[in-house]
Amino acid sequence: MWFPDHKPSMSLITEDPCKAMPLDFVFVIDSSRSIRPNDYEKVKAFIVNLLQFLKVGPDATRVGLLQYGSVVQPEFSLNTYTTKDRVEQAVRSMEHLATGTMTGLAIQYTMETAFTEEEGARPADLLIPRIAMVVTDGRPQDTVEEIAAQARQAGIQIFAIGVGRVDMNTLKAIGSEPHSEHVHLVANFSQIETLISVFQSKLCLDACRTVDHGCEHQCVSTTDSYICRCLGGFMLAEDGKSCKKPECGDGVMDLVFVIDGSKSLGPANFELVKQFVSSIVDSLDISLTGVHVGLLQYSTKVRTEFTLGQYSVARSVKQAVSRMQYMGRGSMTGSALRHMFESSFSAKEGARPNVPRVGVVFTDGRSQDDVSGWADKAKDSGVTLYALGVGKAIEQELRQIASEPDEKHLYYAENFEKIGEITKKSSHLTYSVPADKPSGESMCQCESVIMFQTQVTEKLKKLAQNNILFPNTCGLHRYTKWIFGHLVSMCLC
């Protein structure tokens, strides 16, 4: 049944729904005051018409919908309705919010809530495509570029539909690539129904069944083509079809910084630590297939600043580091190590299988809780831990945190100025291959770390030569060379 005041041309609708692949599909609808009531009804009609091409059901396509104005209002989640009739009825019952245009907030809710398993999204390992369709008619009152990039990186394919005077650059910042397939702009709401036939061809495509895809492990149909994916422990080769084990020299690493934000550190030194992290980030090959970086700050509580899977470009990581707000309270280092072990290096937060894992713990005082238990669990799981202590940090705690031998993974200085007195350690120390790991795998991880160290050292050298580093960060420069000099020495046989 179509809306009586807006019947689409029957030429746009096929009598039998196509045999589309299962999807987790969420509509994200602009319900701002700039949309007139009659146009709002046209958007609802467009959604109902589009549903005719979807086989809705628990084992078929699941549909969710949220609308937004100044706030986000979820109408129904992916697990609310199991039949198309119930979904259509819910769409018809929606009421216009007629407030602001917080598009970025809506995309954030879509990523963080709408596509969670609690809301009905199926587990990622089932490879069910996650589709978000954003329909908007105006300029967002918040930023969309960063949060939309995070959503796409999280595996959500975004279609951006603009109506009227929407800026095309805004739509491109929202939509997935290629933009020619995912970004659409129409002059007014009466023309939005012309997109029905466009999406019919996309939603009815199951490329993996209709083309010779050549994927070595798994083929996953998308709304416009297909992509190849690899099983756990493998990475996609350059041809986009073959799968391979990570090789030495691929420059792959999962690196998590654990930063002390206690009141004893002080705001000024906290800013120096932030610059220290940013200087390292500048020299890393941060990408989807390269280095992943996460960071958590702790004081009395632990706060994840960003996860390993959150950013895929260095610029975004550095922006996140610069936005960090100093917590300035207690010092629960043990809780931070627990969070790192249980969450930061989890698959949910972006940690990858068979990839070297490194944790850099920075602290300047005595922990108010035990550190040894969770540090041991992290190290036993394969995480290499470096403990960096300044000021009132306790040597015994640093040794409990650091990987063995602790003389290679631990450093302490009385204050930030004393850090500058450290000289680079000799590199004749040997590295013993753990008994439970093949030597090839361990040395491969070492080569990734060596590449990491080389990039960091060169970058900091340039910063020093160009006087970009603050005067007090001279010590941090040498500090960094000491840390990653040990990463090299532990890999030399």
Automatic annotation (TrEMBL):
Against PROSITE patterns, the record matches this protein to: VWFA
Which domain of life does the UniProt lineage start with?
Eukaryota
Report whether Repeat shows up as a keyword of the record.
Answer: yes
Which keywords belong to this entry? Coiled coil, Disulfide bond, EGF-like domain, Glycoprotein, Repeat, Secreted, Signal
Domain VWFA, first and last residues per copy? 24-203, 254-426
Keyword Glycoprotein annotated: yes
Gene Ontology CC terms, in alphabetical order: extracellular region
Query: Subcellular location, in the record's words?
Result: Secreted
Using the UniProt record, give the first listed, main subcellular location: secreted
Please give the name of this protein: Matrilin 2
**Taxonomic source organism:** Cyclopterus lumpus
